[in-house]
Design goal:
Chain lengths: ~290, ~250
């Protein structure tokens, strides 16, 4: 340890230095020990893989095939989250609206979607919607049955997007409501309309607050996108399950696909941290 | 006071919160262009509510408000009245006790926000005047700083510049120094004084006795939702007529 420099005449007593050093050492020890523990855990897991004779060459053989499904997983997740973002903003504005029609539609949307299992919703879009189309067609709307008979991927995107949109509606609404009344008043006092105040003052500030929970939803969606496999879409998990069953080596395939999901989520989490730092400009804590 | 034009006129203004909290009880007030008016009164007497009714941050329950010839009847809620309210807000600047700067924008961005968003100016049109205003409140060097990095006094001065960027005809100050550390009060009051010197019409709710005594042209004391006394500061401070104003002034001057 280097001897601390005395600066500008203020002298910190020796005992205080000892305390400061002890605090610093404690932090260092904690960091070091955490790293050791994590390494030990990793070694232990690989040891476990070894003693149960996990077939790594089998995993290596099929990893390429499974990764091909990543495109579908990412496509479904990205389009669904985009849809969810649009729906959640509309939903939040509806929930906060003084217009009784907009308000009740938004409230019903959130309540209905949050109150039913995503699994049921996926089947609803894929299997039940064509039946609705048929009924409507018979009532005299031509071509509606074809339009409502969705291929698996669009049905999956709609199911995920509409479902997550409902959850995110509440996140966005809470974010908007967390902005102090003073901000809206300052905007109004300048002569802004409600729309201008929302667009320029309230929403940009709310966005900063809702980015972490929205990223959270996105990470959850990457994994829930595996539900589209129910409709026979060849995405990540569907491929892993198929191969695992065919060769009676499900353990290898499931560990492999779990690892791929995990890696994707770690990358997303990193991106989330970057975005948060960027959004936090002007916040005292970051300078 | 270069002309005798009436800038703000309030007639029989009532504000009821809830069903029965009668905060403003038939207020009348007339302010001429260039006049500096200070409103005093005990906490809860309705001073802030009155100020906030002038630019309709509070919707008056009844009464007529005229700002620079634009008359809004509080009883009516038509699209036409809504449009006039927006016009009145453009003509009035307001400073809040808690500053309410936009935290996601730098000082200069705060100042140009009104002209750009409300008046539709381009950034390059708005920036020179905004820089002039920041310079006028003594904060040129804080041009690109976010509010969280400014002291309370600096934030309030940026807030004043932000209001002035709209070229208002009237400035409303709602206890602009109440949230400030004592040593920061002076820099804000000094800006308000210079504004008064330049002939701005000012309505201020403030506990800054120096401002009320030396800068104001007229002091009004409010209690229980209406005026109890008004007059030039020298008269109000030395020789208040009403018992309630005597008690109130004795209380705050000691």
């Amino acid at each position: 340890m280097s001897v601390p420099q005395e600066t500008g005449g203020s002298s910190i007593p020796a005992e205080a230095h000892a305390v400061l050093e002890e605090i610093e050492n404690r932090q260092k020890r904690f960091k070091r020990n955490t790293t050791i523990a994590l390494l030990a855990l990793t070694v232990f897991i690989f040891f476990l893989f070894y003693i149960i004779k996990l077939d790594f060459s089998f995993m290596a053989k099929w990893v390429g095939f499974i990764l091909t499904g990543m495109g579908v997983t990412l496509l479904v997740s990205l389009l669904a989250i985009s849809l969810a973002c649009v729906l959640s903003i509309l939903g939040a504005l509806g929930r906060l609206s003084k217009n009784p029609i907009a308000n009740s539609i938004a409230t019903a949307y959130v309540s209905l979607i949050r109150g039913t299992p995503l699994l049921v919703q996926v089947y609803m879009w894929y299997l039940a919607l064509p039946q609705l189309g048929k009924a409507l067609e018979e009532l005299g709307i031509p071509g509606i049955q074809n339009a409502l008979t969705l291929p698996a991927i669009p049905a999956g995107i709609l199911a995920l997007g509409v479902c997550y949109g409902a959850y995110m509606t509440e996140t966005v609404r809470a974010g908007i409501q967390s902005i102090t009344i003073g901000q809206r008043e300052a905007a109004k006092a300048l002569g802004m309309t409600e729309t201008q105040a929302m667009r320029r003052i309230i929403f940009p500030q709310a966005l900063r607050i809702i980015i972490p929970p929205i990223s959270n939803e996105f990470i959850a969606m990457i994994k829930d996108s595996s539900l589209v496999s129910l409709m026979g879409v060849w995405e990540l998990s569907y491929r892993a399950i198929k191969i695992g069953r065919r060769y009676f080596q499900s353990l290898e395939m499931l560990i492999l696909v779990a690892f791929i999901y995990w890696l994707m989520c770690v990358i997303l989490q990193y991106a989330q941290e970057k975005i948060e730092t960027h959004m936090a400009r002007g916040d005292r804590r970051v300078h | 006071m270069n002309d005798k034009k009436t800038m703000v006129k309030i007639e029989n203004l009532h504000k009821v919160f809830g069903r029965d909290i009668h905060v403003l009880q038939g207020i009348d007030l007339q302010v001429t262009a260039g006049e500096v008016v200070v409103i005093l009164g005990p906490s809860g007497s309705g001073k802030s509510t009155l100020l906030r009714c002038i630019n309709f941050l509070e919707t008056p329950t009844a009464g007529i408000i005229t700002v620079d010839g634009l008359t809004v009847n509080a009883g009516k809620a038509t699209k036409e009245e809504e449009r006039k309210i927006l016009q009145i807000r453009k003509k009035t600047g307001m400073c809040f006790q808690s500053f309410n700067l936009f935290p996601h924008m730098t000082a200069i961005e705060n100042v140009i926000e009104g002209p750009v968003t409300v008046l539709g100016q381009s950034k390059s049109e708005a920036i020179p005047y905004a820089e002039e205003l920041l310079d006028w409140v003594g904060l040129s060097d804080k041009r690109d700083v976010h509010p969280s990095r400014l002291s309370g006094g600096q934030q309030q001065r940026v807030a004043i510049a932000r209001s002035l960027a709209m070229k208002p005809d009237v400035m409303l100050f709602d206890e602009p120094t109440s949230a400030l550390d004592p040593e920061l009060v002076g820099e804000v009051v000094e800006v308000m004084e210079r504004l008064a010197d330049e002939g701005m019409t000012i309505l201020a709710v403030t506990h800054e006795m120096h401002f009320a005594r030396d800068v104001a042209h007229r002091v009004l004391i409010m209690d229980g939702g209406n005026w109890i006394e008004q007059g030039p500061p020298e008269e109000i401070f030395t020789n208040p007529k009403e018992l309630r104003s005597q008690q109130f002034l004795a209380h705050i001057l000691n």
